[in-house]
Specification:
There is one protein chain. With 161 residues, the chain is of the alpha+beta class. It has four helices and five strands, in the order βαααββαββ. The protein has a five-stranded antiparallel beta sheet, covered by helices on one side. β4 and β5 form a beta hairpin. α2 runs antiparallel to α4. The longest helix has 19 residues. It is elongated. This is Cyclic pyranopterin monophosphate synthase.
């Protein structure tokens, strides 16, 4: 039997959602990362919890989790998934005036969670920017990338260090 092709295009070349009906459910996990670079005073304000709008990282964590859960509403042709875990971690890097963000998404399903992890990092970073833009419009969101993934037919993958 010929192997089924997983593509976003049908036989006529029209975009469609990939049909994963025949794929086996497996445990899948993806980790994504990114950074927000800012002025030292902005980073200190975030680290000390002194922002008048509240705890920037707590709000960014919630925003990232919500974004992962709604990824299929944001990314065309992305499958709606029943995530079993979404975790965001933030690392304050005073040497580089940065907040580093890491998201880990998990599920048991027929398709991977890479887009959910990437979306979580992106929206968390944008939330940090949004909450702090009044004091630092020069912030940059940098290097949003997939760090690792596991599960499915393609198995394990990890970015080069």
């Amino acid at each position: 039997m010929a192997e089924k092709s997983f593509t976003h295009f049908d036989a006529s070349g029209n975009a469609n959602m990939v049909d994963v009906t025949d794929k086996a459910e497996t445990f899948r996990e993806a980790v994504a990362a990114g950074s927000v670079i800012m002025e030292a005073d902005t980073l200190a304000m975030i680290a000390q919890g002194d922002h008048k709008k509240g705890d920037v990282l707590a709000v960014a964590r919630i925003a990232g989790i919500q974004a992962a859960k709604k990824c299929s509403d944001l990314i065309p042709l992305c499958h709606p998934l029943m995530l079993t875990s979404v975790k965001l971690e933030f690392d304050i890097d005073r040497d580089n005036n940065a907040v580093h963000i890491r998201a880990r998404c998990k599920l048991s399903g027929q398709t991977g969670v890479e887009m959910e992890a990437l979306t979580a990092v992106s929206v968390a970073a944008l939330t940090i920017y949004d909450m702090c833009k009044a004091v630092d419009k020069g912030m940059t969101v940098n290097n949003v990338r997939l760090v690792s993934k596991s599960g499915g037919r393609s198995g394990e993958w990890s970015a080069a260090s």
